[in-house]
Each structure stands twice: as C-alpha cells, then as structure tokens.
Amino acid sequence: MGFFTFVEKLPCVWNCGWSPMIERRNADGFALKVMLGLCLIWGLQQVMIKWAAPDIAPVMQAAARSGISALLVGLLMCWRGGWENMSKTWRAGLLAGSLFALEFLFIAEGLQLTTAAHMSVFLYTAPVFTALGLHFMLPSERLRPMQWLGILLAFGGTAFAFAGGLSVGEVDGRMLLGDALGVLAGAAWGATTVVVRTTRLSEAPATQTLFYQLLVGFVGLLVIAVLSGQVTHVRLTTVAVTSVLFQGLVVSFFSYLTWFWLLRKYLASNLAVFSFITPLFGVTFGVLLLGEPLSLNFIGGAVLVLLGITLVSAEQWVRRRLRTLLGQ
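The chain above was modelled as a monomer; its predicted structure follows.
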C-alpha cells in the first residue's frame, strides 16, 4: 500500500478531530530528515521482497505483511477509535482493498521477472494514473498544462525504459513483462486513490481506509497464494522472517503512521516533493544490495518518469519555485 492513497483526504490518523483550519507550515530541517528516513524505508521495500523471494513467495510475503499490519491497525482503532460509519463505507472499502490486493499481486509477480530497481520506478507512476482518473471524475481536479506535460514525460520515459528490454532474448523478454506488471501495479495503486477520493472513504478516518485495504488485501492475496500453490513456498529462514516483519511492522504500520503525522504538521505539497526520492533509493539499493544491472535506456527513462510525476503531483510547488527563480 502506498502513502499517496491518503495524501488528499487525510483527516487524522488518530481520529482526533482533524480540521482543515489547522495551520500547516513549510517543511523544515526536521521534516526533511524524517522524510529522508521514510523514503529510505519505502525504497528498500521492493529490494526486501526480492531478497527473500527464494525463501518465501512474494505473494505470501504480501499476504503476511498485510495480515500483520491489519492486526496492528485494528488494535490501534480499538484503542483510539475509527470504527464509526463502517456500515456506510464497507462497499468502497472492499473495492479499495481489492485494488490494493491487485497492486501487490502485480508487484509480487513482477519482481519474479524484473529487478527491484525497475519495479521501484514503474510502481511510482501511480500519481500519474491518479491524476488522470480524478481529472475525469472530479471537476475540481482538472489537470493544468504543466501536469499534462508531466504525464507525457512520464509515459514517454516509461516507453523509453521499455525500449531497453525489447532486444531479442528470453531474459529481456521476461524483464519487459515484469516491467509491464510494475506499471500495472502503479495503475492499480492510482485507481485505489481515485476510489478513496470519490467515495464515502474520503470522509472516513485514515486508519479505517488503511484497515480496509490491509484486511481485504490479506484475505485476497492469501486465497491467490493457496490457489496458485505458492502457499507451500515458505521456509522460515532469517531472511524470510526479517523481510515480512520489516514490511509489516516498519513499512505498512510505522512508516505510514509517521507519514500521516507529518501531514498534520506540514504542507502536503512540500512533503510530496521529498517523497519522490523513494524510487532513487529503490534503484540504489537494488544495485548495491542485489547487484542489479542498469541499462542506459532505463536510466534515461527513469529520469523522465521522475520528472513527469514531479510535475503532475507537485505542480503548484514547481510553479512557485519557477516564479521565485524568474523573480516574479
């Protein structure tokens, strides 16, 4: 599950009476340090999944991490609240959870074919799909010219990166399919955000929305693992246990709650700009820890994708910076 799902609708993770009148400040040095830590954690996630794949199937990793996190979020809601109005949100919650499960199914299957570095970049095309979906569904979310430019750059960069996998050979063909699954995962993530923004979930506590995704994702991914026979691909090695606990405790629980806390203190547009460091960490960890190769096509395409999603998701911030540079 990605944090962009909640950026636009965050009430308060602790269900503590959030108000849009709460003054939020520009990101400072402390926020930057915390965001760097969060981006490091998020960038490491795909690498951890691929690292543990020989011992535990990626689908089983996704199911286990979702189950652990759902339990923790459920306990948090029992303590601090967040169960209200579930009779009105459960249908949208099931849809969001199903899209979440689909996202991680694509990630799990894709990581068996492509590198963690590639997956880290293609997964983060999600804001582009979100922007396109909201453009057609919410009048207030119409795309501006700079955002359309960002979309063209992101898709152009994706096509350019794909061109590196079009050479003849089984390995390249498998990587191309894995990259495509990474883009589909980003599309599923983007669709999840659209569901959250355009349904009753937009008024629900963030913990409730997160709980829906984790619980439905756990059940759905576990069923897929059983039906595909991957449930038997589990060896409780140190690597496998470390990967699942890292994803369940550190990524899906601790890091997202920390992100929500930051969003209550600082402007979301400022934080979103920092968050795009995540794919860079993912690529770096893939190369350094897993020894993954990088082609020139992928590097060039990744730069275009990152530039594109920055223009799409941080358009206002970019416009302010350009005005400052131009002295206007």
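Residues 26-325 form one domain.
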